[in-house]
């Protein structure tokens, strides 16, 4: 017998009686979603820009490019100076990545990014600094609401990103900037 | 898997307790995590509802596990994900090695996976000439220090920053004497960045496997799973059969409780859904049993498989905080380590490394009845005639004495008499380990029973 059929056979005689499939019936907290989101982004070590966000982003990226920083942008109307490569290793020297998020979550400051939005899966991780763009109408209260809207069809990879990468593995001291981006700015349009 | 050493829990704890200031520091560091967890939990009015939902989703899935595993596999195959099944650790390691050998992999970057620890994958691959780099900072520290993890979420919690500084100086060339966590973390980032960029394949653990999608979810704060998983073309993901959840709604419940309960964050920095290979790449999932179907044959032990490895029960445990992660004779320490590993401890002592205070059960986000399971593990040991040294002789007598009111009352009056009239030096040896650091109590003149009859039962 194969290991698969062995495992399935052993599961046939499990001792747990059948339990019904539960359902989430939790009313989402809907007061001041933007305010909640802003507080959450801040709490997880990120920065939220909500006033004139697109213009602020364009200006920021233009000055980065003028400075000679390596910027890859996947957002229409925001021009970087690097193209999306086929080999992810080619992005090893990227300073800034500008990426369109598809959802934002008020309770934890997370933004949902798919491989389509990122252009290439490695982009949001390999950059030193991450700039995420998300539209205010895509803001939801919590993870239940978020996962109701996430559609994985045609999405081979997607990730919720909540703040810059971090670790507390040395004596529980929080250090921002572990393996992923060292800073995160969210532009709310 | 039992460790080779035969020292029992108390002996190993004693080694840890020799440095009193370190014990205090360790205990405080973990209590800080517990406090952060309490703040995060109490910020959600629906917290208790989420715990109940977590438990219900897990019980539902575990009681229909065969069906969900098959659905999961079918959906993965549709996505071009290759699925493998392993009965035990040895088969898991063989499968992993075969895949890596086929692609001539020389260097593998690996993010945190307690399962690969359980299967002893690293030494196996190293024997076959494959370099394995653990990429979680804590795991890299203990890998360089040639130690196993002492905690499932914060694996290097037993080390002080000066020790990490010394280690990094020796292994990755940081400045001598430097111990600033930010400096050391930056140095590790540089060191590991090179490893990510030069790896031939990446491997991750799995936090949740979603049956109706054929997707797996991997949660990290550092981004190491995604740095690895998104660079080389070949990625492997190992999961125990217990990682299954039915749908996205179930995942949403666990994603709300996991990081809050582990470290007090509202969610981990990255919660990544892997749902197919990258263009031109390969994605493999290895589904592992290794004793889990056996646990499912027992109604109570089955509940230990509801665990989502948040580490909350370990942080709150008064015994773990003061005995350290290396005292348990199992690769998972603390309450959950006893619940799933006690039967493999051949010193027959870790099941007793617990006060049955129940704090673990109270914090668990999926309501694993840890204290009940630990008490049950003791019973299983007793039934096998494997009580720890000492207990084996007196426990059956205790049972008889406590079972009979007359014998018990007689015994207690002898005890009161002895405590009041005999010299303590003569009695102390009878108190065993309990009396080692404690004074014997002052005995009252009468028993509670007599006192109650005189004062309250009128
Ligand atoms: S038993 Fe519960 S509290 Fe302990 S690690 Fe597992 S999920 Fe967390």
From TrEMBL, chain A:
Residues 93-189 form the LUD domain. It comes from the Bacteria. It holds the Pfam family LUD_dom. InterPro entries: FTHF_cligase-like_sf, LUD_dom, NagB/RpiA_transferase-like. This is Lactate utilization protein. It comes from Shewanella electrica.
TrEMBL record, chain B:
Residues 298-319 form the 4Fe-4S ferredoxin-type domain. The lineage of its organism: Bacteria, Pseudomonadati, Pseudomonadota, Gammaproteobacteria, Alteromonadales. The keyword Transmembrane does not apply. It comes from Shewanella electrica. Keywords: 4Fe-4S, Electron transport, Iron, Iron-sulfur, Metal-binding, Repeat, Transport. It comes from the Bacteria. This is Lactate utilization protein. The keyword Repeat applies.
């Amino acid at each position: 017998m194969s290991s698969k059929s062995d495992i399935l056979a052993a599961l046939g005689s499990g001792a747990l009686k059948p339990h019904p499939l539960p359902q989430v019936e939790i009313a989402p907290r809907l007061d001041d979603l933007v305010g909640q989101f802003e507080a959450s982004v801040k709490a997880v070590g990120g920065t939220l820009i909500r006033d004139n966000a697109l213009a602020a982003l364009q200006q920021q990226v233009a000055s980065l490019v003028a400075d000679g920083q390596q910027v890859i942008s996947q957002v229409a109307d925001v021009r970087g100076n690097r193209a999306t490569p086929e080999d992810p290793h080619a992005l090893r020297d990227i300073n800034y990545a500008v990426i369109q998020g598809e959802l934002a979550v008020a309770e934890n400051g997370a933004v949902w990014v798919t491989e389509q939005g990122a252009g290439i899966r490695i982009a949001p991780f390999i950059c030193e600094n991450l700039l995420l763009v998300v539209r205010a109408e895509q803001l939801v209260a919590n993870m239940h609401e978020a996962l109701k809207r996430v559609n994985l069809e045609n999405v081979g990879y997607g990730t919720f990103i909540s703040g810059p990468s971090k670790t507390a593995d040395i004596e529980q001291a929080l250090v921002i900037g572990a393996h992923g981006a060292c800073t995160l700015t969210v532009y709310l349009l | 898997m039992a460790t080779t050493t035969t020292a029992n829990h108390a002996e190993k704890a004693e080694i840890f307790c020799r440095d009193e200031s370190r014990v205090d520091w360790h205990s405080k560091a973990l209590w800080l995590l517990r406090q952060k967890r309490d703040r995060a939990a109490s910020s959600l009015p629906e917290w208790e509802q989420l715990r109940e939902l977590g438990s219900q989703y897990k019980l539902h899935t575990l009681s229909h596990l065969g069906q969900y595993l098959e659905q999961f596999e079918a959906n993965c195959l549709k996505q071009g994900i290759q699925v493998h099944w392993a009965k035990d650790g040895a088969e898991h390691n063989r499968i992993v090695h075969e895949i890596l050998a086929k692609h001539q992999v020389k260097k593998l970057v690996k993010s945190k996976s307690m399962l690969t620890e359980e299967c002893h994958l690293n030494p196996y691959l190293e024997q076959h000439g494959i370099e394995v780099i653990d990429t979680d900072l804590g795991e890299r520290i203990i890998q360089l220090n040639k130690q196993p993890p002492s905690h499932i979420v914060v694996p290097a919690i037993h080390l002080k920053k000066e020790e990490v500084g010394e280690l990094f100086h020796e292994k990755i060339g940081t400045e001598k004497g430097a111990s600033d966590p930010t400096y050391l973390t930056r140095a590790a980032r540089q060191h590991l960045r090179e490893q990510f960029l030069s790896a031939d394949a990446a491997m991750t653990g799995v936090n949740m496997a979603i049956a109706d999608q054929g997707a797996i979810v991997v949660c990290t704060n550092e981004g190491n799973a995604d740095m690895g998983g998104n660079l080389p073309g070949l990625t492997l993901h190992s999961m125990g059969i217990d990682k299954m959840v039915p749908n996205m709604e179930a995942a949403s419940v666990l994603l709300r409780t996991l990081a809050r309960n582990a470290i007090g964050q509202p969610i981990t920095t990255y919660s990544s859904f892997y749902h197919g290979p990258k263009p031109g790449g390969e994605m493999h999932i290895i589904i592992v049993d290794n004793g889990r179907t056996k646990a499912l044959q027992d109604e109570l032990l089955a509940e230990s498989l509801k665990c989502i490895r948040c580490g909350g029960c370990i942080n709150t445990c008064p015994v773990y905080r003061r005995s350290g992660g290396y005292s348990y004779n199992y690769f998972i320490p603390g309450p959950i380590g006893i619940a799933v590993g006690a039967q493999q401890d051949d010193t027959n002592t870790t099941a007793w490394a617990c006060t049955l205070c129940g704090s673990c059960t109270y914090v668990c986000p999926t309501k694993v009845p840890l204290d009940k399971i630990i008490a049950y593990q003791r019973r299983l040991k007793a039934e096998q005639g494997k009580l720890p040294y000492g207990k084996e002789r007196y426990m059956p007598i205790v049972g008889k004495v406590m079972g009979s009111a007359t014998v018990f009352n007689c015994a207690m009056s002898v005890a009161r008499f002895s405590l009041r009239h005999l010299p303590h030096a003569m009695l102390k040896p009878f108190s065993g380990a309990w009396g080692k650091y404690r004074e014997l109590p002052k005995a009252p003149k009468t028993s509670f029973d007599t006192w109650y009859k005189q004062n309250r039962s009128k």
